[in-house]
Amino acid sequence: MPDIKHGIEVIKANVQIAPLNPGVYRMLDKNGKVLYVGKAKSIKKRIVAYTHFEKLPDHIKRMVSEVDKMEFIIVENEAQALLMENDLIKKLEPKYNILLKDDKTFPHLMINTADDFPALRKSRGARKDKAHYFGPFANATAVNNVMDIVQKTFKLRSCRDSMFYNRERPCMLYQIKRCSAPCVGKISKEEYRQSVSEVIRFLEGKNVDLQADLSAQMEQASAEMNYELAMILRDKIRALSCIQSGHNVEYADIQSADVVAVKKHKNMVCIQVFFVRGGQNCGNIPYFPKQVADISEEEILEAFLSSFYAEHAAPKEILISHRLQNGDFLEKALGCKINFYQKGNKAKIIQRVLQNAEAAIERKLAETATVESNLYEMQKVFALPRIPQRIEIYDNSHNQGSYAIGAMVVATPAGFDKKSYRTFNIKYTTNTNDDFAMMKEVLLRRFERMSDENRPDVILLDGGLGQLHAVHEVLSEYDLQGITIIAISKGPERNAGKEFYHIVGRESFSLPYQSPIAFYMQNLRDEAHRFAIGTHRKKRSRSIYKSQVDEIEGIGAKRKRDLLNFFGSAEQVKSASVQDLMKVSGISKKIAEKIYNYFHN
Q: Which spans in 155-184 are helix H?
């Protein structure tokens, strides 16, 4: 039984030495394991609260009773405390912290105004300093819809630079009036820049002002009898009016905000995030955090905001469903306004997001019940020692032995755990047409890195008895106690639903046709196949785009890009003379001779 008195004494002793500075504190148990990571504007003032034991929630009382040691890290300001707390929680996964699984990056629209003719592109990940970014959008569909509107209305290019600088005639997008073809001079640089400026204003939500300016320009063009320009401007105004009429009026007075609502229902918590930019709903995404039992919705929301915006850029305003105790701290750390509304249009929007959170919980509970039912049935059908908590499914993919890879996907009671997916480039198997040998290599490499934390209950192989016996043979030196290896092979006429299942020491069998457990097993197998095929195609695509220019010593990424942009292809670089090579910016005579000699010696 944990010693409550000892825990309080440890915290009181640390209050005496705790700094007044902003920073992060860690609570550890007697084995040195981190129980909790917290942040504070003043560490000393924050941890004093833990000494008032009778006022603490039950889950915090349990934590305090386990505390044996505390550690502090001083930082410069609230923002750094927020980032450090998030990093430590991800790394240590403390027992009493709310854990958010968030490895997602959101798509944005990007316009790099440093280019002569900026393109409109989708973007994820790292940002360029001089580029304008708009978003985030919750998914690819949302960003594609906006991109489609912009191309139809403003006709910005979306092609790669290498294609743009080497075109001799307009592409299909020009023919269908979705690009102004700056690549072949169909629009002047000044006119194109004007369109770029209009797109930026549109994506920033300044539609009313933009329409007024376009109307004034149209009237001026008409007065000057420039009817061609007037018609172009008229079409833009019509398109913007159509877009405006299709907008949800609820979001009309919101320029840049995220609406975040938390709902706790039937022992499950959902946090819904709606992205609103320029009066447009850019989509929404639900999150289901872990370790939230006995924790209030307010605490969950505060922990979520800390974690989520340590990874993602905060908007100008965050609308929230519950008041926060440490809202001021978060505002300073994130550099934005965090507002709770009880009346007005924004309060209605928050209520709508709360309804979405509750609906998402109902769907999740239904899905979880279905998965739990399938896992229970799986335990019975395959005589497993317990309901499986981790299922690993393996598949190989290659193209007549080329670009061979092995793939592992992981399924749990919560669904597919994509964070645990792994790919294996086949390194040691000489005959990559031999599926048995490849699977042996993949399983050996997997078992060499297996630990108690990632030990599977079931290994599912895409193959028959030969595959099953080959894997058992190669894993014979490992402890397979508690691990069931199952092979799944195609049934008669390769029909889905009539597969055969193979387990060592048991007759091969099939599952009832179109039964829920049969569908579940097919879904596991198909997910591994999808992941393996997708990974294989990416590997093959990378090799296709790799050119001979990559092999020349001293030719870095920039020079390679300049060469390919100038000549259009590696073959043209190969056939170029020294004099022609020297015409490329940054290519001296010495480098030109090196490139020429590489291809001609």
A: 161-164, 172-175
